[in-house]
Write the structure tokens for this entry.
Amino acid sequence: MGIVIIKYFHEKKIKPKYSIAVMGIRGEESCWFPYSYIGSKIALGQFDKKLLHTLKRSDTKKSLYYHINKAGFNSNKVSKNKVNFDISNFKYFIEPHIEQGPVLEKKKIPLGIVTGIRGSFRYRDAICKGEYLHSGATPFDYRKDSVVAVSMLINEMNIFWQNQLKKNKDLVITFGQFFTDQKEHSFAKSSGLVNFCIDVRSNSNNTLKFVNRTLIKKIQSIEKKTNTKFFLGKETNSQPALMSKKLISIFQKYSKEKSIKFETMASGAGHDASVFANYGIPSLMLFIRNKNGSHNPKEYMSIKQFMEVFKVLCGTIENNYI
């Protein structure tokens, strides 16, 4: 979208109030390396250089340092927090993105104006250890069933989540993986091991801390009830970020003037804009209506929906709203 805007201004011989730079930022998500916002933190000189050697890519098991060089960049410059531009020149950071949920598509609205980006804490490699015991011969009181223990935790955290929503707390809790040991599990055994992960997100640091404390307390209680033991492993996290109120207001005003429908909404997923916002650069995200969610082969954004949001972003710049 940024490139199309530059092309449009160039062809129309329009000179915007501010220079426009388009950034391509890698490593936003933590699928290859267990760490979010790698590219944006490097761009701002905010990346912890120790991670260059400790972060290993999930498929190659080689370091981030190695892969940065392999991609044609310079890891030594990263380790010096060296950047190629003057950060003080940033006026705004605006990130267009498909909406990854169903809201805009269900409401038939082309544009989402994002108020904030949720932060998170995650336990990616949690396990619950019990004991493999014969399903027919082991009475209830002798069981050490990992499946039961983790199921209890999931149920209790879901009830807790619902109660927090009733109190108008912004919160999402997800257990995205849950599996037993394929080599050991059997229909004739109670399970002695469950691997699982936890992903908790909120726009409030206080809520995240409260949920983490609650999670630990519930685990301790369940361990006593089930004679099992939980090991959560390493915690990873990201910080919540609020988008610029000024930019939100400007884009709401312009959209209303041009009769383009919009939804003012939070982003449940993490995005690079949060790094820029938390660094002090006024930032905004614009969501584009998108079918079938994201991160799947059926994900679909039509060019028609893209152009609706393009009109808004391009128009605010061309007409000197920003």
